[in-house]
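Collaboration report, partner site 2.

Our partner group contributed sequences for two proteins of shared interest, and the home lab folded both. The records are reproduced in the order in which they were received, starting with the first partner submission.
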Amino acid sequence: MKSFFRIALLTGLFVGTTDILMAYTNSFIKTGNFAEKMFHYIAGGALGLEKSMQGGTGVALLGLFFHYFIAMSFTFFFFWIFPKFKFLVFNKYVVGILYAVFVNLAMRYLILPLTALPAGGAFILERAFIDWILLGIVLGIPIVYNTYKFYGVKKD
């Protein structure tokens, strides 16, 4: 028997890893430098940027924890709501991209404003569209794919 917790946990670990790899890659492409303090920045949501950016390994580990906690939360949330909403059985790729849009907007407008991080920049639809597609590939589609597999959905 497949374990709900095991499958959702492994999916969350996978999407958390692919998401952070995408973030590092995106940062490198934009700046030409490796983002050595990315996890420090994430920890800044709780500690404030000034304090977190001066922190050491413990602060980086806190950022790593927050990153995976968020990835796991969105993964477990989708696994949990899936059987409650029949319209989610449509097309795993479309639903995956739409879930990525939901995650991106929830982070931007609900989660991040509750943190000590500075407000995000202006909403630019063209940039958001690219982010949604990339997030769909590394987060949304894998979550939906494994959810469909777990629940035995055969639809493409």
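Second partner submission, folded after the first:
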Amino acid sequence: MAENKTRPTAESVQAFLDGVENKRRREDGLALLHMMQEATGEEPVMWGPSIIGFGKYHYTYESGREGDSPVIAFSPRKASLTLYIDMDFDGYDALMDKLGKHTTSKACLYINKLADVDMDVLRKVIHKSVEHTRKTNPS
């Protein structure tokens, strides 16, 4: 079975963020860094070349595939801020309705800029995602 490509690295989170060309994206990345660090109580770690993750849990799928994943993570990509969150918590849909301008996929929340969303709602989403991931994936 193939190994996961996205694994923790020893690369510097600060150096990565300092290298984000778009000033707004870099500043939004720093804001997300602080929000996620507050929500997890964990230090940020680079996962692969472009994802900043917090905490870690082990998962096993029904197929037998298993690996480690950050409890919550984000990447300040060129197109948008990509947040890797658990979307299965109670109240998710109600919070998304209040969040502001965003899109989602199976496990990602995409935000163009933090100014487009309600920061209090985003904090709740981040906290509830962390809480749910830890509850459903005990270490």
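Feedback sent to the partner group on the second submission included the following. The helical segments are 13-18, 23-40, 92-99, 119-136. The first strand starts at residue 44 and ends at 47.
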